[in-house]
Amino acid sequence: MHSGLPHLGRTRSVRRSSYLLQTPxxxxxxxxxxxxxxTVIVHVSPAIGAAFTQYTVEFEPGGVLGAALGxxxxxxxxxxxxxxxxxxxxxLGAGGFAYIPRGAEQRVSAVEKSRAAVIEQPYRExxxxxxxxxxxxxxxxxxxVALMGDSDxxxxxxxxxxxxxxxxVNTMTYQPGAGLSMVEIHMMEHGLLMLEGGGIYRLDDDWxxxxxxxxxxxxxxxxxWFGAIGKKPAKYLxxxxxxxxxxxxx
Length: 250
Ligand code: UGY
Ligand code: MN
Description:
Blueprint lengths: L13 E2 L3 E4 L13 E9 L8 E13 L5 E8 L2 E5 L2 E5 L3 E5 L6 E4 L3 E8 L13 E4 L5 E4 L2 E8 L9 E8 L15 E7 L1 E6 L2 E6 L3 E4 L5 E5 L5 E8 L9
Antiparallel strand pairs: 1-2, 2-18, 3-4, 4-9, 4-10, 5-8, 5-10, 6-7, 6-9, 8-11, 12-13, 13-14, 14-20, 15-18, 15-20, 16-17, 16-19
Bound molecules: (2S)-amino(carbamoylamino)ethanoic acid (UGY) and manganese (II) ion.
The site of manganese (II) ion has 4 residues, from loops.
């Protein structure tokens, strides 16, 4: 019989000063202003020291997401989500994504039961550079590039690599056995959602098994490395702050 204490307080989730590994068994669902028939799982926010927020929104059919604070990036994980921003009206299926500039009037609603990853960040202006405009796309249609010449590690940049964008969102797909060619230590922070497969993530001085559904936040300068394990590819969606002077982080 079920004891009521199946995990006895154990979980793969870990919170350290330089990273957070959040596994689905520890997800807490909440509301943010404006959400209707939708709940959010906030993965990371300034409360932990991040300069952005990332959350997963789970919609009932017809559910609505509230207003954004700053620019918003949305990636549909499951179902179908309508994004309505002024003259732009799109229905996005799984793998569809939208970039919505700060201040844009918007309505993000679910056509059916759906889930989406959402990233919001204040925009860091640069004199002489025009802020980005609304865009939508489909992950599978984006160009795929071998990372450092390794054809077993493919990267798709979802946002254009221009100075107008102050963050990047990419997907990274590792064939079984593929791994990052180096341990990275960099100023930029990451929000990472495991989409498929799994492997071992080195975070700071710890090595963690990770699998689809897990979320990881890496603080600036967190040593990081990933190697894919298993019989199918591992794939993640990864946010990175980008393209700004190191003294212009606010
Ligand atoms: O772009 C990146 O920094 C990426 N290679 N990092 C990562 O996968 N942890
Ligand atoms: Mn990195």
